[in-house]
Amino acid sequence: MGSYQGVIFDLDGVICFTDKYHYAAWKTVADKLGIEFNETINNRLRGVSRMDSLEIILEKYDGELTAQEKEALAEEKNELYKKLLERMSPADLSPEVKATLDALRAAGLQLAIGSSSKNTKFILQRLELGGYFDAISDGTNITRSKPDPQVFLMAAEFLGLQPEKCLVVEDAQAGIAAAVAGGFDSAGLGEAAQCGQATYAMKTFAELTGICGAIPAKA
pTM for the whole thing? Predict the structure, then answer.
């Protein structure tokens, strides 16, 4: 503990929660195609890129779609999602998360985002965290989704750190698998804490201060 120089965070489900917006947007697309879509299927999309998510949804589709039609559907979903994201505000950032991030920064750790979302910067702006992180690796600069470690390896590279000097914070099992594959220690929340692969299984986000040897920020 306390030996890390950088912390790399997944965005959705860790820093903030946009699952309801993803679900609503994908449900609209699935309903249009007459495809069954529910919470169980939606859970499989966590940490997965937009096009890979579409392929999972299309598993229940009887027809054939061209690559262009798939791109159009993915773009339609994203436009629906972005309109929903406009409802986000700094009020969607929990005090616990902000206080913990501030404590980690005060302790001298570099902070980065490692997310497959192409909307990462927009979401951070809505939360008034634009420019807050030292590096952002997201869907705009990666070609492979988790459990491939590419997004975390690039985040570490942007920070100028080796994987062993970084801690990855994730809420999805695929994200923990990506961290393991990249040679990172990991801290898991929710599903990720229960998968048995995380270096640290956390119940609260604030536990990061103890893991990283930071002094908790005063309320």
Answer: 0.84
